[in-house]
Design goal:
- With about 170 residues, this protein is mainly beta.
- The protein has one domain: Lipocalin (Beta Barrel).
- Helix content is about 15%, strand content about 40%.
- Strands 1-2-3-4-5-6-7-8 form an 8-stranded antiparallel β-barrel.
- The radius of gyration is 16 Å and the shape is globular.
């Protein structure tokens, strides 16, 4: 964090609400990134970004993120998500550190499911600082009307829809 940012006072963020219940088994499988807040750890990703979730039991979920670079080569990273709120399963901590470092608790990011369509075909995922945001779907793209219908939900969660960048599929 730059020193300037550390010294700047900002208004506290309103509490963020997640979905009331996440069925991990139904959430499992592959999700396509439809849109995101650009971030440093996905800079090399140019297109076809997916996340595949595999329940491992005891509140743990295997995570495999993959994407294609501009030259067409594939990039992938494996990690694990752990449920931190078993009452809803909607708040997780995700780590892509090597397994031997995960026990330390460092390098774990918040992964909160903020919206989930009733049929588990579209999700909005964010985290309390509102620096990261993803729109995920079971298909590589969403119809424009369906995508725009998500914007009020994103605003209500305290995010600026103008910062979203549409993901590229092929």
């Amino acid at each position: 964090m730059p020193l300037v940012a550390a010294c700047t006072a900002s208004a506290p963020l309103a509490p963020m609400e997640t979905v009331s219940r996440l069925d991990v088994e139904r959430y499992a499988g592959t999700w396509h990134e439809v849109a995101l807040y650009p971030n440093r750890f996905q800079q090399a990703c140019s297109m076809d970004t997916t996340a595949t979730y595999t329940p491992q039991g005891q509140g743990r979920i295997g995570v495999r993120n993959r994407c294609r670079r501009a030259d067409g080569s594939e990039m992938a990273v494996e990690g694990v998500a752990e449920v931190v709120n078993p009452a809803t399963n909607a708040k997780l901590k995700v780590s892509f550190l090597p397994a031997w470092l995960r026990w330390t608790g460092i390098g774990r990011g918040d992964y909160w499911v903020l919206y989930l369509s009733p049929d588990y075909s579209v999700a909005i995922v964010g985290e309390p600082s509102r620096e990261y945001l993803w729109i995920l779907a079971r298909t590589p793209t969403l119809p424009e009307q369906e995508y725009q219908a998500l914007m009020p939900r994103i605003r209500a969660a305290g995010y600026d829809p103008q910062r979203l960048r549409r993901a590229s599929a092929h």
